[in-house]
Amino acid sequence: MPDDIVLTLVTLTFDAADPAALLAVLAKYVVVSRGHPGCRNIDLAASATRSGRYVIIEKWDSPTAQQVHFDSTDMVEMASACNGLLASAPQIDLLEGISAHDLA
């Protein structure tokens, strides 16, 4: 990995009040966001221990790329579309990659 890349990881955790509707919103967000500049990968996962919990895991080339994405219309659209679909506010965590790397 080039020296100028400082991987930034983000987790977004959502507890659904309407799982089917929320899953549709999150799946669309993941697909469209993978094409954003600086995106290494974005995955959507369902919790195996908490029914109705979904987690998005994002990997970005830099903190700047991640912040630009969070200010994007796709992020704002996803957040707006979640209105009425959540049991509680989403949990967002910004992580620094210590041993994160791409296998390919």
What key phrases describe this protein's structure?
alpha+beta, single chain, Alpha-Beta Plaits, 31% helix, 104 residues, four-stranded antiparallel beta sheet, 4 strands, 29% strand
Explain this structure.
It is a single chain. This protein has 104 residues and is of the alpha+beta class. It has one domain: Alpha-Beta Plaits. Helix content is 31%, strand content 29%. It is built from 3 helices and 4 strands; from the N terminus they run E-H-E-E-H-H-E. The chain has helices spanning 19-33, 63-70, 73-81; strands at 8-15, 39-46, 53-60, 91-96. The protein has a 4-stranded antiparallel sheet with strand order 2-3-1-4. Helix 1 runs antiparallel to helix 3 (73-81). The longest helix is centred in the first third of the chain and has 15 residues, at 19-33. The chain is globular and about 35 Å long. It starts with 7 loop residues before the first strand and ends in an 8-residue tail after the last strand. The model has no long low-confidence stretch (mean pLDDT 91).
- Unreliable stretches, pLDDT < 50, 5 or more residues? none
Main sheet overview: 4 strands, antiparallel
Outline: globular
Order of helices and strands: EHEEHHE
Number of helices: 3
Assembly state: single chain
In short:
With 104 residues, this protein is an alpha+beta fold.
What's the structural blueprint in terms of helices and strands?
Layout: E1 8-15, H1 19-33, E2 39-46, E3 53-60, H2 63-70, H3 73-81, E4 91-96
Antiparallel strand pairs: 1-3, 1-4, 2-3
Helix pairs in contact: 1-3
